[in-house]
């Protein structure tokens, strides 16, 4: 496969002319893998650079007020496994790659070790000349700024000296823990056509849970009139504007920001602002800057709760328009190439499920389940409607004398509607069924919690033989 032609972004002062020519597909990535189009990201050491570069993506590795605990006890939201073989951050980085965004900065801070390792291993070989495709900027202290990043705006402000080194004209701000597919070229084209200082991505439809990032009020030309942060659901669902040219749309927390506008907003107009959405964007609107919205109608999930995470995994099994498609040849999903052996299946019955690489499934029954890499399932086990994250490593030899229970799911165990985190040891004849339909329970001391009726087994937990949950 020959290298693609990069899209050209030419400057026609004082406005931009947008001329996409083709999509980026790394030369060494095969077109098909095991009859699917989900791909491991194996880029050549260098790619042919285009004539110029105008856009850099800034990806935030974690958010605030996460409701994904205990899945985020030892990892950031962006590092959460998804659909067997991937991490949430892979969806966002893949959107950038498929949209010809060739410079990506990942700003990380909270529980970032796992995320930083994944990013460096997965994308370190992708380079544009001497420049890395993805550059991780972990939270740091300096004489000018001590302590942790205080928010998205503070993080960008403190990293401006790095960001300004690259000759770009626009910043694309992206949360790293959302699951969606978007052609950022369309977002950028709308931004340039409107000659905007800031362009926000909004959902073109209304859902009950679309209030997490607030709503934008737009006029008939999609110019932002006002922003309301975290409005009450009942107000949003019942309010109807008398002016049909002014509509409200839910924010996706995705922004395109002109570089000069960004510098002025963060250093001159709002030098003490910490949060970009709550402080900087409303400030730009009040200053009379050109703030426009771009409507998005595809699949999107903000992954801000255990229930949302569970639902997104289970929906990935289904081949419907409501699910995130893993098999889209035009927008492949990239990740770290692990070079694991094929999954070994011995007399197992598997229906409506996704199975990751390198698993051992022995005479078990699996239905409606996402099974992560290196998962071991013993004889007679039954797993239904669950998310099994798998294991980080293969267990060598027999289990330790004082543990007795190897990593994986033991013989005769039954699991239904559960999330099993990585490296869990589930003994023989264990029942994780929540028969009493308990909705909320915190039993972290014994290795599990229940939220929204979903049983979550903590990472590395040991569930003894015969346990009933």
Automatic annotation (TrEMBL):
<dbReference type="InterPro" id="IPR005836">
    <property type="entry name" value="ADP_Glu_pyroP_CS"/>
</dbReference>
<protein>
    <submittedName>
        <fullName>Inactive glucose-1-phosphate adenylyltransferase small subunit 2, chloroplastic-like</fullName>
    </submittedName>
</protein>
<dbReference type="GO" id="GO:0005524">
    <property type="term" value="F:ATP binding"/>
</dbReference>
<dbReference type="Pfam" id="PF00483">
    <property type="entry name" value="NTP_transferase"/>
</dbReference>
<dbReference type="GO" id="GO:0005978">
    <property type="term" value="P:glycogen biosynthetic process"/>
</dbReference>
<comment type="similarity">
    <text>Belongs to the bacterial/plant glucose-1-phosphate adenylyltransferase family.</text>
</comment>
<dbReference type="InterPro" id="IPR029044">
    <property type="entry name" value="Nucleotide-diphossugar_trans"/>
</dbReference>
<dbReference type="InterPro" id="IPR005835">
    <property type="entry name" value="NTP_transferase_dom"/>
</dbReference>
<feature type="domain" description="Nucleotidyl transferase">
    <location>
        <begin position="57"/>
        <end position="314"/>
    </location>
</feature>
<dbReference type="InterPro" id="IPR011831">
    <property type="entry name" value="ADP-Glc_PPase"/>
</dbReference>
<keyword id="KW-0067">ATP-binding</keyword>
<dbReference type="Pfam" id="PF25247">
    <property type="entry name" value="LbH_GLGC"/>
</dbReference>
<dbReference type="GO" id="GO:0008878">
    <property type="term" value="F:glucose-1-phosphate adenylyltransferase activity"/>
</dbReference>
<dbReference type="InterPro" id="IPR011004">
    <property type="entry name" value="Trimer_LpxA-like_sf"/>
</dbReference>
<comment type="subunit">
    <text>Heterotetramer.</text>
</comment>
<keyword id="KW-0547">Nucleotide-binding</keyword>
